[in-house]
Amino acid sequence: MTRLRFALFFVGILSTMSFAGAQPTPQKAHSALVHAVAVSPDGKTLATAGFDNVVKLWDLVSDGTIKEKKVLAGHTGPVYAVAFHPTDAKLVATASQDKTARIWDVTDGKTKFELKGHTDIVDAIAFSPDGKTLATAGADKSVRLWNPVDGKEVKNLGAHDGSVYVVAFSPDGKTLATAGAGKDSLIKLWSVKDQKELKQLKGHEQPVTSIAFADDKVLVSASMDRTIRVWNVVDAKETKKLGPTTDDPYAITWSEKAKTAAVCGYSGQITVWALDADKPKFTKAIKNPGYCVAFGLDGTFVVTGHDNGTVVVTPVTPPGK
């Protein structure tokens, strides 16, 4: 069962929750579910990936609105993930249900390379911090490394025992973390240089839906066991368990600027966590199931993507703070 199918099972049984404060204004972005959002390294561009098979690029405006500037069309199935190249503003990578990943040249909106090798949905994609390696993973249980310069597969690292939903590089680029379903709900750590498995992080009791590095030694994860966990990747030990959350968390992201993690849940709930706290420092409910979250460059707002094809820009710090 894919992560989305698992998600849709829970959407129907989620309770409706009331939170204080006005609702941010959703902005229609796609004609189907928005499964991934990403903010460019300079903070000026938003990428959204939809189940209408396209990726869109938007200007991020200071008042919280977005303005469409380009559509990347070519995938023949829903787009599950999108990532900006860390140093080359022309390049964006995407992953799709059509069993391919793509690297796009956004100057002309065309595919630069189509990456073929996966035999099922490609759920996840990420560039290494230096931009020299691209990682993908998917429902075929495999984790693969690619060369973004020529689009060729470098290494099939190996497999989980279930679908792999997420990949994340450490800030120093030395470690790749991967996670998903499977009988043990493992997070695996891989050496990028040696191209082999290093360690396993064990503790989650249900599929791991998202992961993010806080620094080279600290990883945070979200799971359908309704917990957010903090890990020391050097010792492969859990150092903190946050939650239980009030709904099933689907996506997690880290802001280096704000030193906080943001989580988007299946019910649309957004929470922001300091890793040394037991409760979220910010909570907001968006009235539609949410599947992805990304911080703005300065950590003062998050962008979330939702089941009804909308994206929402939500301030997460008080004005002037």
From TrEMBL:
<feature type="repeat" description="WD">
    <location>
        <begin position="27"/>
        <end position="68"/>
    </location>
</feature>
<dbReference type="InterPro" id="IPR036322">
    <property type="entry name" value="WD40_repeat_dom_sf"/>
</dbReference>
<keyword id="KW-0677">Repeat</keyword>
<feature type="repeat" description="WD">
    <location>
        <begin position="115"/>
        <end position="156"/>
    </location>
</feature>
<dbReference type="GO" id="GO:0000209">
    <property type="term" value="P:protein polyubiquitination"/>
</dbReference>
<dbReference type="GO" id="GO:0016301">
    <property type="term" value="F:kinase activity"/>
</dbReference>
<feature type="repeat" description="WD">
    <location>
        <begin position="157"/>
        <end position="200"/>
    </location>
</feature>
<dbReference type="InterPro" id="IPR019775">
    <property type="entry name" value="WD40_repeat_CS"/>
</dbReference>
<keyword id="KW-0833">Ubl conjugation pathway</keyword>
<dbReference type="Pfam" id="PF00400">
    <property type="entry name" value="WD40"/>
</dbReference>
<dbReference type="InterPro" id="IPR001680">
    <property type="entry name" value="WD40_rpt"/>
</dbReference>
<protein>
    <submittedName>
        <fullName>Uncharacterized protein</fullName>
    </submittedName>
</protein>
<keyword id="KW-0853">WD repeat</keyword>
<feature type="repeat" description="WD">
    <location>
        <begin position="72"/>
        <end position="114"/>
    </location>
</feature>
<feature type="repeat" description="WD">
    <location>
        <begin position="201"/>
        <end position="241"/>
    </location>
</feature>
<keyword id="KW-0418">Kinase</keyword>
<dbReference type="InterPro" id="IPR051983">
    <property type="entry name" value="WSB_SOCS-box_domain"/>
</dbReference>
<feature type="signal peptide">
    <location>
        <begin position="1"/>
        <end position="22"/>
    </location>
</feature>
<dbReference type="InterPro" id="IPR015943">
    <property type="entry name" value="WD40/YVTN_repeat-like_dom_sf"/>
</dbReference>
<keyword id="KW-0732">Signal</keyword>
<dbReference type="InterPro" id="IPR020472">
    <property type="entry name" value="WD40_PAC1"/>
</dbReference>
<keyword id="KW-0808">Transferase</keyword>
